Amino acid sequence: MARDASLFSGRPSELIGQQIAGYRIEDEIGRGGMAVVYRAHDLRLDRTVALKLLAPELARNDTFRKRFTHESRVAAAIDHPHIVPVFEAGETDGVLYIAMRYVSGSDLRHLLDREGPLALPTAVRIATQVASALDAAHEHGLVHRDVKPGNILVARGTDSDHPEHVYLTDFGLTKKSLSLTGFTTVGQFVGTLDYVAPEQISGRPVDGRCDVYGLACVVYESLAGRPPFRRDDDMALLWAHQYDLPPAVSEARGDLPGHVDGVFAKALAKSPDDRYESCLAFVTELRGGVAGHAPTEVDRRVAVARGRDEGPPAPPRWAEPVFRRLG
Ligand SMILES: Nc1ncnc2c1ncn2[C@@H]1O[C@H](COP(=O)(O)OP(=O)(O)OP(=O)(O)O)[C@@H](O)[C@H]1O
Ligand SMILES: [Mg+2]
Question: Which intervals hold domain Protein kinase (predicted)?
């Protein structure tokens, strides 16, 4: 349909100022393999949103449409501080779209590209927020399937104890498990293969533990500066995820504490049964087995009420906020 093509594949500037499904397009934020994301104005509610327009070919794929509808409903129903709130998902003129909260900041892909490897405390702080979002989704029966730096949005945090606020986005938007490995009709893979779990590759059933694997790949890259596997071509990379052992992260980062290699070995296990049961269990072990966080004021008030106050709040444990460097 000519209209589809003009909505999606027109040059970005052609859409600026246009209205789509009650949103006025203001600016292009970014584009991935199967979608373009715009900053837009919601004319009904008079607010700024991020409007994602999916490639028209996806609307023609029945499997994708069904899962898109189902999973955007489930994602919209999850009210979680680290999941991007979805305001509306629908279809207009053959193009699927999602309106969601506009997150001002960067995504982890850009952050890593710009800053290189992160300090362990920073990587752990970001991973903890993503892990809590993933575990909440899993409790709702939703598996993300496409955990990767581009789907982790990093905004300014609230204070020096929480220098970044991290949001996970794009539930159910992966094309990877639609067919064997997500190759399009022209044989090109949509998206990256750096974070895909062995069971996704072999077409076995997936559960939350495939997101444990994906998250572990992301945190590995955040620390080592490269994902666990690097190969010359896609088939070799798929093979590596299924059969090769990743190099110890300490090979790239000699400054990390000794327990870290063992934690990644378990989180990146080939069989889901050998991995951590949850994403937070993985991150807790990464932190050295120390669960939780420094008490917030609210926690402290509860603690005082119960007579368990253990003194003043701890000073920020991790001094180096990344957000200041995001620009
Ligand atoms: N709610 C949002 N607020 C602000 N920026 C966003 C939001 N959602 C996505 N973005 C930005 O839009 C860009 C494009 O996102 P998109 O999901 O299309 O691609 P991707 O996740 O990078 O790659 P892929 O196509 O492989 O999924 C991302 O880099 C992200 O920074
Ligand atoms: Mg994305």
Answer: 23-296
